[in-house]
Sequence to fold (211 residues):
Amino acid sequence: MPHNPESSQTMASPVTISSMPSQHSADERREWIRIDDRVLMEYRLLTETGTLVPVERTPTTPEMISAAVTKPTADLLARTGESLVGSPVLPWIMKVDYMLEVILNALVVSQPSSVAMARPTDVNLSGGGVGFVSPREFASGDHLAIKLILPPFTLIQAQAKVIRIIPQTDGHGFAIATEFVDLKADDQELLIRHILHAQAERLRARRNQTG
Fold:
């Protein structure tokens, strides 16, 4: 459901996001739970004619490719721990990662415009929207086509509307707050489950540190 832009609170991230309504059902409240996270993300401006306009103009580099390819495997290792480290499956996963990097790097050399990579991005994430820092300034009401890859290999595709733009104090980019306007119910459920899982993992880690 859309955020209420008239009621806001500042989170740990540089993006100001709407606060949760006081009277909602338990299922609806789950949509407003949010976390600061780092996920693979790609976004493009969606024009009124339906054309997708790339936002990032910097060329895709081997470092970007490596980060995009290896992050899902790193997330998988973080979730499974030693059970996967000692598994015979891990070397095959590493081989697939390596081959994928080789193929993508070759494509960048031969056809630079053909490779658009999702990049590790710091986000403020909820089931109702996503906040992030963009090098480009958008206008309130702009629509974005967004792809998120949640750990370890879950692709979420959505359309979001820009509801707030705040210039960064250091002059590098703009904090963008958005609300989802087209997100499948199943994808939203996956997104909320990821948020709840991440919250539980962080709480468990804090308890282990203090205990």
Confidence is low (pLDDT under 50) at residues 1-23. Helices lie at 26-32, 62-80, 82-85, 89-110, 185-210.
